[in-house]
Predict the structure.
Amino acid sequence: MLKDEVLKLICRENDYISGEAISRKLGVSRAAVNTAVKALRDDGYEITSSTNKGYLLTNSPDILSKGSISALLPDSRSSELYYYDSVDSTNTVLKTLASQGAGSGTVVIADHQTGGKGRRGRSFVSPSGCGVYLSYLFKPESGFDKISDLTSWTAVAVADAIRNAYGFDSRIKWVNDLLMNKKKICGILTEASVEGESGYIDTCIIGIGVNVNESEFPSEISGIATSISIENGGKKFIRAKLASEIIKSMDRLSEDWPDSAYYLNRYRELNITCGSKIIAYPQKIENGQGRTGTAISINDDFSLRVEFSDGSTENLKSGEVSVRGLYGYT
Ligand code: BTN
């Protein structure tokens, strides 16, 4: 869309950019540039114009669009970025694109999900104008046993993105929920397909949902969920900034994969589960009985070492066990 391309140019310029320069760069008429600028102003972008100097962006609203996100990404990024106002689930849309040949690094992002998916068949509340709902396609060329490393690496990548975008630290609850003040601000759902013969992960859809500007949550989850805005006194944040930082972090992760000590070290630093009393639930057993214990440490394969109340010690693997705090969510 021309509006996105014009926004990208105006956004990247720290000074005025002339209508002439925009029309030359984009190969369109001056009239088309004027129309695009008017449409951006109608969206809420504050763009000053001066007869001699051209256009200057003075203020941006919190709008997610292909233009607002890609303006903040390096020009050298060549992977596709798809933006939608509303989809059922960005993971589902990306899965279809992957089956049609989309490459590693392809991103689907939406302002709203009507059927946002969480782990273990739960839904992920995804209202419009509030969060960042993003799916990233990765072809890791690793065996299936590395999948829990990948989701743990992603938790670190998203925590780094939040820090780079807004300057706040979040903490990681094993295995990959991000928390602020002990409540969840981000969930990650990794869906992988395995190549039958080699047992290698063919395609990995990494779905990331961050609660940014929500001011409340449905009563069923209000005790455990929060947003970056709520934790910062109701201040609203520009979501395109976070979306672009998540994409940059995930691009970095893809380059670092699978050999980087950084992710395990940083995971251990940000982890909030170790030292806590926990209840471990087997995932595959319906209404399975929880076992209480104390989380001790994160092993090199991101499994959680737990000492149970009966004195036994076990390494818990994500996918097999979920963990709840004995005295609350953490
Ligand atoms: C969880 O905490 O249970 C995982 C939540 C994952 C939510 C994200 S939002 C973007 C992507 N699309 C989905 O349908 N789910 C993931």
User: Anything to note?
Assistant: The radius of gyration is 22 Å. The longest strand covers residues 183-194. The pocket of biotin is lined by residues 89-91, 113, 116-119, 122, 124, 133-135, 187-189, 207-209 (CB under 6 Å).
